Every structure is written in C-alpha cells, then in structure tokens.
Amino acid sequence: MDIQSLFSLEGKNAVVTGANTGLGQGVSVGLAAAGAHVYGVARRSCEETAAKIKENGGEFTEVIVDLSAEDAIAQILAKTESAGRIDILVNNAGIIRRNDAADVTEEDWDAVINLNERMVFFLSQAFAKTWIADGKGGKIINIASMLSYQGGIRVPAYTASKSAVLGMTRALANEWAKYNINVNAIAPGYMATNNTAQLRDDENRSAEILGRIPAGRWGTPEDMAGAAIFLASEASSYMNGFTIAVDGGWLAR
Ligand code: NAD
Asked: How far apart are CA 178 and CA 172, in angstroms?
C-alpha cells in the first residue's frame, strides 16, 4: 500500500469557505500541503492564507464572495469555473452571536441559521449536483462543533445550527454515498480563533474551559489539518456521515 498516495490530494481542487482566518486558514494550509489547489472563499482578502500556502510551494486562489449575498452560490460556481472541476468542498464559514436566550433577536437568529446551516446545505447541494452529473464523486467536509453534542450557554442559534450540521452530514451521506460522494464533518473543540476571543478574554470562562480540556490547551488552526486531509483523501473513501472530534479530549470527559 502506498501511504503517500492514500493521503495525497495532488491534482485535486478544493473550495474552503471562510479561508482568510482561523480554522478555515488551518484547513486550507493543510489541504494545500497535501497537494490540493485551494480556492478560498471569503468576504475579505485571504492575503495571510495565500502567503502561508505559497511559502510551502502550494497553490491558492482567492474567491471573494459574501456568503450572505443572495447570489453567493452562483458567484462561487462562476468564480471557480476555471478550476475545471472542484473535488472537495469544506463548509467552514460560520458565525456565533452571544446573548441570553430571552434576548435573542430574530435578526441574530436568522443570520446564524442562514450562514451556518442553510448555506451549508445549499452549497453542498450545488457541488453534489455537478458530481452526480459527472459520476466522479467528491468530498464534503462540514465543520460542526462541540455544540453539535452539547447545549452551550448563551448561543442557542449557534447550537441549533451546529446540531443541524451533524444531522445534515448524516442525511446527505445517506443519499449521496452511492454516487461516491463522502459527506463527513469535523467537530472542533475549543480553538483559539476570533470565534472564541470573547470566551478567552473572560478570565473565569477561559479558566473553566481550559480546566476541562484533557489536552490542557486550546486547539489551534493547525490542529485541523490532519483530520481535514484524511476526510478529503482516498484514505476515508468508506467513511460516510460521520463527525470526527478534534477537541483535545473535551467530549471524552
Ligand atoms: P472565525 O470567526 O475566525 O472564522 C469565521 C470565518 O467565516 C471567517 O473566515 C469569516 O470571514 C467567515 N465568514 C463569516 N461570515 C461570512 C460571510 N458572510 N461570507 C463569507 N465568509 C464569512 O472563527 P473560526 O473559529 O475559524 O470558525 C470557523 C468555523 O469553525 C465556524 O463554522 C465555527 O463555527 C467553527 N468552530 C469554531 C470553533 C472554535 O473554537 N473556534 C469550535 C467549533 C467550531
């Protein structure tokens, strides 16, 4: 067995949403290091991600699209057309809005659900349609959360959306496995990114969280690379509908 080729993404094209920073950057750098040409979708410039990938001799193309735009999916399809074929989709972009459940506004609820849940479904559908049509299969990696399993505190829309991501990953895998499309997810634990800046700034919450992580540290964007490469490669070709935790042992507690 050739281990290199089992995990190689040489010749593959990957779309990663939210590639400019945080976990999306970590995933992009990982996929590019394994040989993929990464098309990074973001609202803002992906300069830093591009520089990290080019440093390693990898390939990266920036795709500036606001995923809250009505025609976001059409824009992504048009702006990645030059790739010829996209083989891997990573639904990473996501937002979190913190508030007491009693005070959550409809606007915040809708913004979170639209990006974290609705967009994950319809972007997956858009690429899966092309993969079903050409019969060559594909890989979808959704980014779930510890709140796909737990209730969380003051983030009810986020918990609802990430619980939906776990369920949707199973539902889509059931329908698309027969087309050689692998739909799986990664559930990151508590990672040091913008998403958790407020938690880390709160001394008590930060100490509470850290004290519960068996690995004894917050995760990093780099920690995402291994699971992402695995789920994007042939190594995971008989994995369908599963969510892998990359959490320093949080769920094991
Ligand atoms: P982050 O806030 O640094 O990154 C969020 C990404 O989403 C950014 O690239 C941002 O530009 C993008 N994004 C947001 N709204 C967008 C829009 N309208 N159009 C295009 N892009 C948009 O946080 P992160 O931690 O890197 O989050 C990445 C994913 O990981 C999210 O889905 C998040 O829910 C998930 N996650 C994070 C943690 C953690 O501890 N940091 C844990 C579990 C899951």
From this structure: 11
